[in-house]
Amino acid sequence: MPFNTEFKPVSLKHTTLFKPMKVGKTMVLHRAIIPPLNKMRADPETHILNEELSIEYHGQRSQSPGTMIITEPGNISPEAGGYAGSPVIYSKVQMEVWQKFFSKIHENKSFAWVQLYALGSQASPKFLKANGYKYVSASAGAYIDEIFEKKLRKQIIPKLV
């Protein structure tokens, strides 16, 4: 892919990007926020995050004091998942691993919020069937597309909610 010679960089010096901002009771020192990025590196069986990689990853991204990090999503229950490798945050053992990388973030004088989630209509039919979970969605009949609905009905129709 050729380099775009028509692109003209614009300085962000006079924008609010580098100005502090209050988020709830927390004062972040700039507005460059690390968004939630699910890396799908949790143990496929226990859904516990890879401790070493999580501490390193979040430690690197929190090196600039005052950084706001919204962590990768954490499923709120086993049934709320939907993919192998997706992290969870509902048991004491799992929360102990999360706490270790929160400690690293706080050591770097930065801040973290967990994105809590339930996959609902985005859950993998194969994952749901393999784990004996029901398909639960916020809206009845909500499917990604017709192919997804056919797979879902074929694989877990007796458990369809």
UniProtKB/TrEMBL annotation:
KW Flavoprotein (keyword) present: yes
Alphabetically ordered keywords of this record: Flavoprotein, FMN
Transmembrane segments: none
InterPro entries tied to this protein: Aldolase_TIM, OxRdtase_FMN_N, Oye-like
Pfam families attached to this UniProt entry: Oxidored_FMN
Coiled coil: none
Chain ranges of the NADH:flavin oxidoreductase/NADH oxidase N-terminal domain: 17-148
GO MF terms, alphabetically ordered: FMN binding; NADPH dehydrogenase activity
Gene3D superfamilies attached to this UniProt entry: Aldolase class I
Requisite cofactors: FMN
Similarity annotation: Belongs to the NADH:flavin oxidoreductase/NADH oxidase family.
PANTHER family, alphabetized: NADH OXIDOREDUCTASE-RELATED (PTHR22893), NADPH DEHYDROGENASE 2-RELATED (PTHR22893:SF91)
Protein name (Swiss-Prot/TrEMBL): NADH:flavin oxidoreductase/NADH oxidase N-terminal domain-containing protein
Species this protein is from: Henningerozyma blattae (strain ATCC 34711 / CBS 6284 / DSM 70876 / NBRC 10599 / NRRL Y-10934 / UCD 77-7) (Yeast)
Gene designation: TBLA0D03350
